[in-house]
Amino acid sequence: MSKQGNLSIHSENIFPIIKKWLYSDHDIFVREIISNACDAILKFRKLCDMGETTDETQTPFEVTVTVNEKESTITVSDNGIGMTEEEVEKYITQIAFSGAEDFLNKYQDKMDKEQIIGHFGLGFYSSFMVADTVEIDTLSYTGAPSVHWSCDGGTTYELSEGKRTTRGTDIILHVTEESKEFLNFYTLSSTIEKYCNFMPVPIYVVDANKETTTSAEGEENTVEAPKPINDPIPLYTKKPSECTDEEYKTFYSKTFMDYNEPLFWIHLDMDYPFNLKGILYFPKLHNEYEMVEGKIKLYNNQVFVADNIKEVIPEFLLLLKGIVDCPDIPLNVSRSFLQNDGFVKKISDYITKKVADKLISLYKKELDHYKSCWDSISPFIKYGCLREEKFSTKMKDYILYKTIDDEYITLNDYLEKVKDTNENKVFYVSDKEKQSQYVTMFKENNLSAIYLTHPIDSSFISHMEMQNKDVKFMRIDADISSALKEENTAIDTAKEEKLNTLFTSILNNDKLKVKLETLKSQTVPSMLLISEESRRMQEMMKLYGMDTNGM
Ligand code: ADP
Ligand code: MG
Fold it and tell me: Which residues form a coiled coil (predicted)?
């Protein structure tokens, strides 16, 4: 015999869970309540566009957040669609019943799904993470009487006649002692900036306790027109063809508080097979060893989700600075979910490809600019090659090397240049100062070497050797190119023998064999060669903290 039943959920049990665990960051209530206000406005605008209603007031659409520290309240007001009593009961009191989804289903055919933010029907309750009592005062666009709802976080609520006389909704949070930091105007403003800086409706923040300002001389200040805290039409939502270089640069400095100009940028704009918009900037490094500290901000429909989510953005791209807005990524991202999501992999592949395409096109069309950026972008590109096979394959022929003559050339160009002297060996300098005398020696003899002085280069060299099997990278003191050897001078064998005895006894190693050769150089009197393989092995062991004695 089998039996079926319904799971029943008691709100007295679920409330504390929502309050505590739904979102890990308490400040997220800001995002949820303000995004509901924006949704309410977008819904009303949509109804007007569809001819379902008309906007008689013609007041500009906006959201106002008023903080009253003395009364411990934060009020979020909108002039959106409002709610009738039935709607309050349905959307607010039925936890996890999303009015956003309901709205979308109702107007499914006429709606562009991406525009409404809400989804889960839980956002409103995040207000109880910071407030003990929440009130709603709302007037529906339908002309139904205004409604007042209030709830003290228990399982009952009160409904009565509301006070609002204009269309829209006030959400009033009575903030708890515990969360009173949000009652500070500046804390609240910066939290709003963090989550709402690109929300699609102008948002104003007002300090209710601030008296009308008069200047020290007692004259009344001319009141400046208040400015919204957000940018409702961020640059990345526009078509790339409509944006100017100046706009890209201004957007960069405003968004990332970086007053150095970016080197270049990539405007992402994709509709199929998924929606994705954004701009990635390549920041300029002040010197080539500077630690690159990027930041990729992830948005969902102009609502901030989080910074630097490496499950969505390939890790090496986190060295860049940028915005990625993808409406298909859930707002309350759980990282383990994202990790296993094939869709997320597609996003990251797409972004990686776009970045490689941009770099290759710069190489092909603006080589001089590409070269001038190389010092700044090379750690990023090399890291990308080490981390992403596909990126590496695409970028293989567009990696530049800086030669000791300060030229930037590709590996193939280098090999071509040295083909008569180097036999597929790439001589490199890993430390400009310590190896400077060898650099001079190379220059004296018209030989070429490249600089590979960045910490990432030692890993990158092995990577390049794997990719170019017949090429060998040699540190400038690891081997002597035949062009540096004086062929016709006789070797002093007695000296050679003496040195042999000296080295074998000092190093206590009778397998050692000392071989003398004559160097063509004015600057370097003598040179002790250090085998590339054993040096690399030693360096690796040091890196892993292994004992290198006896090597
Ligand atoms: P979601 O936004 O995912 O639908 P929420 O819990 O955030 O879920 O909100 C529940 C519902 O309450 C919304 O879908 C909407 O119908 C209604 N609502 C919340 N805030 C407002 C508001 N400011 N104006 C009009 N309706 C609102
Ligand atoms: Mg919501």
Answer: none
Is residue 335 a known part of a binding site?
yes
160 in helix, strand or coil? strand
Candidates 76, 75, 72; CA nearest to 175 is 72
In the prediction, which pLDDT does 117 show?
52
Q: Which of 478, 468, 420, 487 is nearest to 448 (CA)?
A: 420
**Residue 250 one-letter amino acid:** T
Q: What is the spatial distance between Cα 328 and Cα 443, in angstroms, rounded to a whole number?
A: 57
Q: Is 83 annotated as a binding residue?
A: yes
pLDDT at 384: 93
Going from the C-alpha of 176 to that of each of 73, 172, 398, the distances in angstroms are 9, 13, 58
pLDDT of residue 551: 47
Residue 16 amino acid letter = P
Which residue has 């400038």 as its token pair? 476
For the chain of 551 residues, list the mean pLDDT of each consecutive stretch of 10.
Answer: 64 60 76 94 94 90 97 98 94 68 68 52 81 96 96 85 96 96 97 95 95 57 79 96 97 92 94 90 79 82 86 82 87 58 80 94 97 92 93 95 95 89 88 92 90 92 91 89 77 85 88 81 80 86 70 47
Q: So what's the pLDDT on residue 220?
A: 56
Q: d(Cα 149, Cα 151) in Å, to the nearest integer?
A: 7
> Which residues does 415 contact at the CB level (< 8 Å), separation at least 6?
422, 424, 426, 471
C-alpha dihedral sign at 192, 197, 200, 205? positive
DSSP state letter for 332? S
Ligand 1 atom closest to residue 117's alpha carbon, by position in its atom list: 2
Distance between alpha carbon 386 and the CA centroid of its chain, in Å? 19
Name the residue of 18, 28, 36, 136 to mutate for ligand 1: max ligand atoms within 8 A of Cβ.
36
DSSP string of 178-191, one letter each residue: GGGGGGSHHHHHHH
CA distance 155 to 542: 63
**Residue 403: partners with Cβ closer than 8 Å, 6 or more residues away:** 409, 414, 448, 449, 450, 451
Q: Is 36 annotated as a binding residue?
A: yes
Cross-strand pairs, 276: 270
Write out the H or E segment, with its range, that includes residue 136: strand 131-139
State the CB neighbour count (10 A cutoff) for residue 509.
10
The reported pLDDT for the residue numbered 222 is 58
Q: Which ligand has the minimum distance to the alpha carbon of residue 126?
A: 1
